[in-house]
Fold:
Amino acid sequence: MTITHVAAVDLGASSGRVLLARHDSERATLEIEEVHRFPNGFLRRDGHDCWDTEDLVAQIEQGLDAIIARGITPASLGVDTWGVDYVLLDQEGRLLGQAVSYRDHRTDGVMDQVLAAVGREELYARTGIQFMQFNTIFQLAALKKENPDWLPRVKTLLLMPDYLHYRLGGGLSCEYTNASTTQLLSLKARDWDRPLLRKLGVPEQWFLPLSQPGRTVGEWTAKSGERVKVVLPATHDTASAVVAVPLEDEHSVFISSGTWSLMGLESGQACNDPLALAANVTNEGGVDGSYRVLKNIMGLWLVQRLRDAFPALSFAELAAQAEAAPPLRFLINPNDDRFLNPPSMYEQIRAFCLETGQGAPEGPGEAARCIFESLAFLYRQTLLELGAITTRRFKRIHIVGGGSQNRFLNQLCADFCALPVIAGPVEASALGNITAQLRAHGALADLAAIRSLIRHGFASETVLPHPDVSDSVERHWNRFQDLCRAVPV
Ligand code: ADP
Ligand code: LRH
Structure:
């Protein structure tokens, strides 16, 4: 019997979790257990929305120490987090400034200034990354404006998971899949685009050589003295999630559903032609030379923030109230920047509906229904765009992540896209993280072995489109598209 234990730390923008995995290579089974879960969010510091890095490190170590306290020393651990965010280290390896969140308003308006200097077409041709105002490239431009005096003091830029690995005792490293979200990599060379860095006036020496998943970058020491190797997973949570989607073939689309809905496909080829640019499709770096051709859709962030107005309601209760509300009365464009970080999500949704002549949703059920139906329409729109760009024909949609527990949204997605939805696994990012480590230990051979293990070992639920809703969906589809035309999605 060959048993391998590994620990995965998966940090999303809304929560973090530490999982313990037990792989039995003889029985070809993988069991996972959530050992510690903690909320994540930002704090206001020096006038910015920032991540609480000290708390994140403390929570991670609490989870890892709990594993050790059970008498299990995992063969390795690895951290994945949301993309684009970074910290700066000074010459002594100390944090310079804060880990400012990508939702902070410091990047408002900055993208246009950068594009005036670099050119939209050129930047897209070089990087293949979609334009989102919070990409690292724009965060760095905002930083240069606000803190020009820091520039000579910076030694290294570390992306969030690389920083957490460093704090856990790993050395300095920069993992490729997450680096691709910065919009500073050459799409073709899969390395830092140094001419671009020079053009932007960002010092090249801040950026470490890229590492692929599977590399050992150091060792973490538990309170009780046990040592655990730090092994890189695909450190971008979406990259890890996609590793764990049991994709069958090129007719499968995924939605990694959490704070964001990342909807796309896996491809050996990047799509950065003018059609892809017009649709603002991204080409993030995946494992084994693949690309994640996808779009960021505002996702369940909208519901997370709606809950601020209705804190007594759980996500499941909000979904139930939405289901009971009248259908297709209120629609928004979820990707409108006004929803990125408003003071009140409920009021922002109501304002959008009022301004577009729809009246305003009243109460949690109507507002949540508005969110879910609008998301499902955006899934449909994205599906059409992905089909046009790749000429693929899609037969099914896999939904993974915490949001795959929302059966109402799964059904809306199936109905509005007129395709079967396969929901699960819920902990896709953690599973991708775990299996990348197991692969590094030789316990799993390749991506096909990983997906086969997940397909057979983790439950999924298939949701079929209702045949009788298509007429009403078609009637409101034009209305949704009109709403989105004002702000491209
Ligand atoms: P992230 O990793 O981005 O923090 P998760 O993958 O943990 O996000 O997903 C969080 C989302 O999952 C929540 O915003 C919520 O909408 C959804 N969710 C979690 N639990 C449930 C549930 N029981 N029913 C419906 N939705 C849920
Ligand atoms: C999802 C995610 C997404 C990024 C966003 C910042 O957690 O990593 O892929 O674009 O966060």
About this structure: Residues 373 and 412 are 7 Å apart (CA to CA). Residues 12-15, 258-259, 300, 303-304, 315-316, 319, 401-403, 405-406 surround adenosine-5'-diphosphate (ligand 1) (CB under 6 Å). The mean pLDDT is 97.
